[in-house]
Design a protein that fits this description.
Keywords: Membrane, Transmembrane, Transmembrane helix. This protein is an alpha+beta fold. Helix content is 44%, strand content 16%. Helix 1 runs antiparallel to helix 2.
């Protein structure tokens, strides 16, 4: 009967190996989920930054030409073409074109002017934000408000 009494186990059993692999698999799935969320938030942040660039570009154009009327309620209201010679029309055409290139059919934009205070609003569908399909993607907006020139009629 040698070997039965006082025998010590050497190595790992199959159950121990399987439990270790299960723990490793759960850890790897968690790391993958974190990576996917980071990708999603990076894309949303990039879209917000792009909207910010478009809005600030338009605000600079309005500041360069403060006497023109830049008020538009939506992108469809912009009828200017690529060959427009008037600065206002060329600026609005570029604004519309930038939003369409940035957000395609999900994009929206408006410019409100009230006593030289300009509010530029840009909207887009962010389908990655909530893992939604394009049809019901949440709408994100970027709003920029600034005074573009001192109006001699209005006293601050």
């Amino acid at each position: 009967m040698p070997g039965t009494i006082g025998a010590r186990q050497a190595g790992l059993t199959l159950i121990e190996v399987m439990v270790s692999l299960l723990i490793l698999a759960v850890g790897l799935l968690g790391a993958a989920a974190i990576q996917l969320n980071a990708l999603k938030y990076t894309d949303s942040s990039m879209m917000t930054s792009q909207a910010s660039f478009i809005a600030y570009d338009m605000l600079d154009r309005i500041r360069a030409n403060p006497d023109a009327n830049y008020a538009v309620s939506n992108l469809q209201g912009i009828t200017a073409t690529a060959g427009s010679t008037a600065a206002r029309d060329a600026d609005l055409y570029d604004f519309k074109n930038n939003i369409n290139n940035f957000a395609a059919t999900d994009g929206s934009g408006s410019i409100a002017v009230n006593n030289r205070v300009v509010t530029i609003t840009i909207g887009w569908g962010d389908k990655r934000a909530d893992d939604a399909t394009t049809a019901n993607a949440p709408t994100r907006t970027f709003v920029l408000t600034s005074r573009v020139a001192t109006d001699p009629v209005v006293t601050p």
